[in-house]
C-alpha cells in the first residue's frame, strides 16, 4: 500500500484523480495490517509531511498518518517513540533542519494521536528538557511562536520544578529580546506581531499559574533593557510583555528599581530609553503607564540627571509617534508628562516647536473625530508650554496661528497642570524616612530665603512681585548691560517667576537695596525699607534719563557743568505742570500720586495751596473720645520704627520749590508730632516759613485742641476707610499750631484741608502702629484691630486746570454719618468749586504686609497677596466710579452704598481668587477670611502696610502684546536672563539629586518626616521669638528674635 501511495502522489495524473485514490487509501486504514506495513505507512506519511515538495503531498501525509494511527494505535505508539522525537528535535529530518517549525508541527500532531497512550508521559518529560534547550538557543520568532503554541496546547511539556520553570521564563524573555522582523511589508509585520503575541501569551499563562516566576522574569527583563552593551539592541517586541504585568505591582516595582543602589545611572537611562521605544509596538497596552510611573519614580528620588538626558534624547521620537493612530494615545500621554515635568528649561519643548504646525495641519485636514479629539488635547499641552516659556514670540507665532480656532484652556487650569506636573512636585512613593526635597509648593509660588533678619525685605518684595502690572513693567524693561538696582530687581522677579527652587536667596538684591543706615542682621522697618527702595529706583531712572539726554551735548559742556545739569534733571518729582507721561519714571507711573494741601486763614479768608507727590500715605489711628481733654502733645506717633515718619514736603504753587526725594509719605495724626525722616532735609520747606522761624511741626502738626469731640470712635472695629477719612478730614490750626498768614503778616487761626488730586495705580497705605512713649523712651506698638475692606474708594478731586493760589476760600460744613462713616468730615464746596467735586476711585486689595510682635524692636514680617490685574474683577467698577461724586450732604453715605454694590459684585469672584501667604521660604494657600481675621486670631499680628490696586476700565499694561504672544500675561524674558534661570534650575536639580542620594545611603539608620506645604487657613503664620505673635506655625522659635 505504501508503494502505491508513493507512486500515486508523485505521478502526473490529474489532481482530482489523485484525490479519489488517496481517499480510498485512507479508507483502507480500517483493514488489518501487519506491523511492518503499518511502520511503512507511518514512515511514508512522515516523509510526505516533512519533505513533501508541495502542499498536496504534505496534506496527503497528514491525512494518511492520522487515519492509520487511529486504527493502528499500538503500532503508531511503537513508531512515535522517544528516539524518533529526540532525533527530530536535535538533528532534524533528512535535509530539514531541527530549527524548522515543521518539525514542531509534526511532533504536536503525533502527541495528539497518542495522548491517551502511556508512552506519552515519557515524551512529555523529554519535551520539558528540549523546550528549555530550544529557548536557550534563541529561536527565531516563527520557531519560538510554534514552540509556544505546542506548549500552550500541551502544558505538560512545560519545564517543571521552580528552578527549571524560572530558567525557562527568563530564557524566553531573552529570546524575545532577540526577535527581529524579517520583512517590512504589512502582511509580514502582521505575521511578526502575531508570533510575538503567541510567545508573550505563553509567559502570561505561566505567570498566572506560577506567580513566583513573575518577579524574576521582570528582573530579567530589566537586566536586558538596562544593558549598556552597545553590540546588542533588545527588540521592541519586549513591549508585548508589559500588558501582562499586573498594574497593582507598579508601586512596588518602581520603588525597587529607583532605590536599588546596584542600578547604575547609565543602566537606568538605557532602560528608560528602551521603554520609551516600546511606544512603537502597535498592540502593547499600558506601556505609557509604566513609562510615566518610572519617570515619576525617578523624580521622587531626585534622579534628575537621568530625566534630563532621557527627555532630551527621546522627546522627538515620542512626538513622531503621534503620526501613527495605533500608538497615538500612549505617545501623547508620555509626551505630555515629559514636557510638563521638564519645567526648568525650554530646551525640550523647543525641539518640537518646528514640527508642531505640520502635525496640526495634518490632523485638521483628515477630518476624523479621533483627530479632532487629539487636537484638543495637543492644543492644551502646547498652550501650557507656551504659557510657561512665554519669551519666544518668533517661535510661537506660527503655532498660535495654526491653533487659533481650537479651544484654549483657562489660566487657572494651565497653572494647576503645571504645578502638579513639575518634577519637584512629584509625590514620593518612598517611605517617610526619605524626606522629600520639594521644589515649589503646590501654590506654584516661590519663597524667599531669610538671609538673617531680612523678613522685612522678603515681605515687601513678595508684595511688589504680586503687583501684577508693576511686575510686568519691570520684566519688560530692556536693561542689558546695565548694573542698576532696577536690573537686579528684574533679575529677582524673573527668578521668582521661573525658578524651580522652593525658595530663592536674594543676596545680590539685598546687598544692593539695603539702606546704608540699616544695621546688617538686625530688625528693621519694612515700611522704611519700601520707601527707600522706591526712592532709589525712582532716582536711578531719573538719573539715567538725564544722562541719556545730556549725552549728545556732553562734548560742548565742561565736566563740572555736565554734573550740575544732570543733578538738576534728576530731581525727584519736579512739579512742572506739563510733565508728559513718557517723562515719568516707572515708580511714578505705578505708585506716584499727588496731594494738595490748602490752608485758609480764618481772618482774611485768603487761601494758600500747594501740591506734593507721594508714594504712600501714612494713616494715623483716630483718638478715642476719652482723650478729648488730654494734651495730645504728650503722645507722639511715628509711622516707622526709626524716625521714618514722613514730613509732608512739597511746593506751594505760587513759589515752586524742588523736592528732595520721592519717598515722601504723608502722615497726619491727631495732635501727634510728625517726625522728620533722617533722609529729608528741612531746607526744602518754603522760604517764607523758614524766614519767620516757623518750624515744620507748626505747619503740619495737628492741633492738640483739634475738635476731638467731632471725631467720635465707632463702637465697632475701625476700618481702613475710617483711617483714610480721618486722614483727609479738615483740621483747625490754632493755639500753638497757628498758621503764619502772609496777607495778615501774623499768626492766625486757619483751616487746613488735604485733597488727593492724582491717584496712583497702586495705593500704598501704612498704618502708624508705633507710638513713642516719652516716659519709657521706647516705641510701643498699637495693637488695635483694623478692618481691611476688599474694596476701598479713594476720593480724588478732578480739576480742569492746575491750581494756583485761590482767592476765594472753602466753606466747611462738618457733619456725622449714621451709617458707619462717623469719623468722616463732609466737605461742602462753594459754588465756584462745584465742578471740582471729588470722584470716588475704586481700589481692590492686592496685598497686606503683617507685623507680628509687640514692639518695633522685635517681631516678624510676612505678607498676604493675590494676583490683581489692571482690568480687575469687574469692569463695571469704572462706570460706577465715574457716576459717583461727593455731594454737599450725605456724599460718603452714598459711597458706602456704592462700596456695598461693588463688594457684592466681587463676592462671586472672590472664592475663585487665590490668596497666598508668603512667610519667607514658605508659601501656602490661604483665604481672604484669614486675612481679615488675622488680628482677632493672633492679637500680636497686625496689618501694617497695604497695597491696593486701582480698578481701571482697561488694563494699564497690555498683556496681549506681541500679537498675543505673551501667553501668560508676563512679557518675554531676555535671553541672558532666561539662560541664567535655566542654568540655575539645572544646578538646583543636581543639588537635589546629590542630596537625595546622600539621604538614601543614610536611610537605613535615620528616620525623619516632612510636613508638606498645604492650605494654611488654620495654621498660625509663625513668629520670630518671645515677642512675636501668632504661635509656632511649624517653625522653630527657639533663640530667634526676628526672621
TrEMBL record:
* UniProt xrefs under Pfam families: UCH, Usp38-like_N
InterPro entries under this entry? Papain-like_cys_pep_sf (IPR038765), Peptidase_C19 (IPR050164), Peptidase_C19_UCH (IPR001394), USP (IPR028889), USP38 (IPR033840), Usp38-like_N (IPR049407), USP_CS (IPR018200)
Q: Which domain of life is it from?
A: Eukaryota
Named from the GO MF annotations, one term is: cysteine-type deubiquitinase activity
Gene3D superfamilies, sorted: Cysteine proteinases
Q: Which GO terms describe its biological process?
A: antiviral innate immune response; G1/S transition of mitotic cell cycle; negative regulation of innate immune response; negative regulation of proteasomal ubiquitin-dependent protein catabolic process; proteasome-mediated ubiquitin-dependent protein catabolic process; protein K33-linked deubiquitination; protein K48-linked ubiquitination
The residue ranges of the USP domain are 446-951
Any single GO CC term annotated in Swiss-Prot or TrEMBL for this entry: nucleus
SUPFAM superfamilies reported in the protein's UniProt record: Cysteine proteinases
The protein depicted here goes by the name Ubiquitin specific peptidase 38
Q: Which organism is it from?
A: Gopherus evgoodei (Goodes thornscrub tortoise)
Q: Its encoding gene is what?
A: USP38
